[in-house]
Amino acid sequence: MSKEKIGFQTLVKTIGEQFFREHESSAVYSYGEEDQGLFCFLGIDLHPSFELNGLSAKMDDWDIYASCYVTETQVIMDKCRLP
């Protein structure tokens, strides 16, 4: 399984699979290589009708989010704001 998929699945489970499914249309998943490993971010905007956050949004602009680093051997959780 790819690191991108491992990160996504970890973040969905962290936020809550049911909660994610209910808000999937206003969710954004992104990832990129960093020194610590593959950085993965999943953000959910609970008020998308006002202004939908995009990839340029800061972490605290998201109502709900979770982030992690995926290395060759482990997933290291980073910052989260959970429901």
Q: How would you characterize the overall build of this protein?
A:
By secondary structure, this protein is of the alpha+beta class. The protein contains two helices and four strands, in the order H-H-E-E-E-E. A hairpin with a 4-residue loop joins strand 3 and strand 4. The longest helix is centred in the N-terminal third of the chain and has 13 residues. The protein is globular and about 40 Å long. The N and C termini lie far apart (28 Å). The model has no long low-confidence stretch (mean pLDDT 91).
What amount of the residues lies in strands? Answer: 35-45%
Mean pLDDT: 91
Range of helix content: 10-25%
For the termini, the CA-CA separation is: 28 Å
> How do the helices and strands follow one another from N- to C-terminus?
HHEEEE
Count of β-strands: 4
Shape: globular
Radius of gyration: 12 Å
Low-confidence stretches: none
Strand order of the largest sheet: 1-2-3-4
Helix-strand category: alpha+beta
Main beta-sheet strand count, sense and barrel state = 4 strands, antiparallel
Can you count the helices?
2
Features:
globular, single chain, four-stranded antiparallel beta sheet, 4 strands, alpha+beta, 2 helices, 83 residues
